[in-house]
Design brief:
With 89 residues, the protein is mainly α. It has one domain: EF-hand (Recoverin, domain 1), CATH 1.10.238.10. The chain is 49% helix and 0% strand. It contains four helices and no strands. Helix 1 packs across helix 4, helix 2 packs across helix 3 and helix 3 crosses helix 4. The structure holds calcium ion (2 copies). One calcium ion binds next to loops.
Length: 89
Amino acid sequence: MNTKGIAKSCRRSLDEDQLHGMFKRFDKDNNGILTRQELNEAFSKLGSKFPAWRTWRALRHADANGDGCISEKEINELVKYALKRGYKV
Ligand SMILES: [Ca+2]
Ligand SMILES: [Ca+2]
């Protein structure tokens, strides 16, 4: 037998996992919430030329409750959004 099938059980892609971990690292005060400023730094690290604009777009997309921050629940949408826009770690 070969190793076929092992990777199949992972629903989440490696790219998603890495981005997720990366965003978490930018939660500098470790409160589980990404503020606009923390997001800004993350996107700038990811190579965005206009991190402030990208942050605004990301918040419009992923900030479900509209408080201007990304909570633990909202971070998955943020990851999906960033991946769709071509951001990778
Ligand atoms: Ca934070
Ligand atoms: Ca929110």
